[in-house]
Every structure is written in C-alpha cells, then in structure tokens.
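Appendix B, record 7
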Amino acid sequence: MSRLFTIGYEGATPNALADALANAGVETLVDVRAVANSRRPGFSKRALAAGLAERGVGYLHMRALGTPADGRAAARSGRHDEMRRIYEAHLQTEAARDELTALEQLIRTGKRLCLLCFEREPEHCHRLMIAERVEAADADVAIEHLHPLPATFERP
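Structure tokens (predicted):
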C-alpha cells in the first residue's frame, strides 16, 4: 500500500517542516498552493525548495491544484464549506484535472509524496480534498497527515 502524506506549515518553522518530512521518509514535497509565496521566511517557493534540497527532499509546485483567490478568501474567513464548494468547481477545470492526473501517475511510481499547503489542520484545507480524490481513484493509497512541531516547541 502506498501512502500519500499531507502537511500544513501554519505555526511551524522550515526546519520543523523538513524534520517531519524526513522522519516520514518523504522523497518529494508537492506544493499545492496556487501562489507559492509566503510572508513567513523560508516558505516561499525558492527558499523552501532550496532548504528541502539540503535535506534530500525534492520539491514540485503543482500550481493548478491550488485554491482560487475566492476560495482562499473563504478559508481565511473560516467559511470552510464555501471554500470546499469553490474548490470542487475548480477541480473541474482542465488545468486542475491534468495536474491531478499527473499527481496520480507520480504516486504510482512508488515515490513517497507529501502535499503541502498553509493550514495546519487538513480538514480546513483543500489538500485533504486532493488526497481524498487520489485515494478514491486508487484503493492502494492511504492518506497520512503530518504535523510539524509548532515553532515554540522546536528543538535548538
């Protein structure tokens, strides 16, 4: 059975995120943010990819699997049901369907992948919806959610 991991970086540091990925044996982090920028140091696309590379973890940005702006606004406002409706509609777009198919093919190679977005709790994030789609398409895939240590508890 293959595992598909998910992780959110809310409240974490880049080192805590990398530790969680390394401890799970993740080979490639799949960034499913529409906009791979962050106000948090170390979590923008280039800095994140470079930091992960130092730990032997690959980085792949699948922008078309990101949440559209109106869905992100709904999530930030705590309107999670609205975000889910918006994201379900987004998954019907050609670009999102193509990237979902590419993700499913990548999982079939046996690589240990982890989906990344901001929200700490997967039930409030579109990455859970992606993982559930992948699991429904392939009964041999199990979802596992990783939680990096919060920044206040990070080891020195």
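Remarks on this record: The mean pLDDT is 93. Strands lie at 2-8, 28-31, 58-61, 113-117, 141-146.
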